[in-house]
Design a protein that fits this description.
globular; 55% helix; five-stranded mixed sheet; 2 domains; 2-methylcitrate dehydratase PrpD; two-stranded antiparallel sheet; 9 strands; alpha+beta; 60s Ribosomal Protein L30, Chain: A
């Protein structure tokens, strides 16, 4: 069997049956985090725009929109739910892909699974397939392309893989679906969006839609090119399918901002916990970080996207509020103390941190107090990675902090319980009913 042919075979054969409990747990944790981020993202302006656009451009179908009564076609639902999932930049990610697999893959699989009336176990299998194929596509893409392209470019391939499993495509159809998804993916210049934050963000909603569409097109015998899995760069990542599970290496974000800003936030958190310093006692802060992090905006944000793709705003918000969550990036953009704190922060690129990126995202800060003391933090990395994980209680706290204000405590508890036992659901639609009814 050729290396590229192993991917369709894997997509058809993968199953949660007899999988080690930690792998199944990893999928369920990804699902819980995803739905929490999607529910919270419904409050962002971009979510309303996505809904209005998709309602006009895609016809009525069987696929649900989170927190909406109406249903759209799978492509339309995947687009809207994908936009919601990444609206606050709180969704999961993977270091080597430099992006967010879940927000592209899960909405696509969910939309197709609901239309096809799949049960919970079938949905879980397809989500696992989507993550394993999508993450590998992301790693290969970054190795084979000269520029840094966004999540939608490779996430669409993972979405197509998961939807191909739901649609029970044949091997040749899957090969076409993966090639169509890559070709129709966003292939977007990510650093230009870092320099100019917008609602495009990581191309996630469009990538999810492209992945769904690719699988449905392939089922109709629409042909595609050989996917990037035919490239020699991907050989080692394909050969370890079913032996190494990349979903166990995704990260969960504790802060509503770009991952590249989060190491500095962790540095500040460490200093504040040790010293009990307050905002008023700090004269200035120097942030030592890697080049990509330094490219994040340093000016006061005018909208939530600019707040998320900002290095100084998250640090200043944490300094003032002790957190950087949905409330800060949605409603505190012009808070006078946050803006004042931003003026006290400067950044410097540090070659130590450039040398280990993207495998590690690290920063260090120096805090200068008004009393003349200087406090240096440890070298910190972004919290939530598999090697610096959120605790089980921290993951639950994040889930409930994002869902309870919107759907209430009772629905939040029921939703989490159903995700934790999702393989027992007779219909994946039962999960959506908890949120939407």
């Amino acid at each position: 069997m050729s290396v590229s042919n192993k991917v369709p075979s894997y997509i058809l054969a993968e199953t949660i049956d007899n999988k080690p409990v930690e792998i199944i747990k990893a999928v369920k944790e990804a699902l819980a985090d995803h739905f929490a981020c999607t529910i919270a993202g419904s409050r962002a302006k971009v979510s309303g725009i996505a809904l209005e656009f998709a309602s006009k451009q895609w016809g009525v179908g069987e696929s649900s929109l989170v927190l909406q009564k109406q249903k759209l076609s799978p492509a339309g639902a995947a687009f809207v739910n994908g936009v919601l999932a990444n609206a606050l930049d709180l969704d999961d990610g993977h270091r080597l892909t430099k992006g967010h697999p879940g927000a592209v893959i899960i909405p696509a699989v969910l939309a197709a699974a609901e239309e096809r009336k799949s049960n919970g176990a079938q949905f879980l299998n397809a989500v696992l397939v989507g993550y394993e194929v999508g993450i590998r596509a992301g790693i290969i893409a970054h190795q084979s392309r000269p520029d840094y392209h966004c999540t939608g470019s490779w996430g669409a391939i993972g979405a197509a893989a998961g939807v191909s499993r739901i649609l029970a495509l044949e091997k040749t159809e899957i090969e076409h679906a993966l090639g169509i998804a890559e070709y129709h993916g966003t292939y977007s210049p990510m650093m230009r969006c870092i320099d100019n934050p917008s609602m495009l963000k990581d191309g996630i909603g469009w990538g999810s839609m492209a992945g769904v569409s690719a699988a449905y097109l392939a089922k109709l015998q629409f042909s595609g090119i050989p996917s990037l899995f035919s490239l020699t760069e991907g050989t080692k990542y394909i050969e370890d399918l079913r032996f190494v599970y990349q979903i166990q290496k995704i990260y969960f974000k504790p802060h509503a901002c770009c991952r590249w800003a989060q190491p500095a936030v962790e540095c500040l958190k460490e200093v504040m916990n040790k010293t009990k310093l307050t905002f008023e006692e700090i004269d200035r802060i120097i942030v030592y970080t890697f080049t990509e992090s330094s490219r994040l905006s340093h000016v006061p944000p005018m909208n939530t996207e600019e707040a998320q793709y900002n290095l100084l705003f998250p640090i200043a918000s944490f300094l003032v509020f002790g957190e950087i969550g949905p409330n800060q990036v949605l409603h505190e953009l012009s808070h006078k103390d946050v803006l004042k704190a931003m003026k006290r922060i400067e950044t410097k690129v540090d070659e130590r941190f450039d040398a280990v990126f993207p495998e590690k995202a690290q920063s260090q800060i120096e805090v200068y107090t008004k009393m003349g003391t200087v406090i240096q933090s440890s070298i910190m990395k972004a919290k939530g990675d598999y090697d610096f994980p959120l605790s089980a209680s921290e993951k639950r706290d994040k889930f409930f902090s994002l869902t309870t204000p919107i759907i209430g405590e009772k629905k939040s508890v029921l939703l989490l319980e159903n995700i934790e036992h999702i393989e027992e659901l007779d219909s994946i639609n039962d999960l959506l009913k908890i949120i939407n009814d």
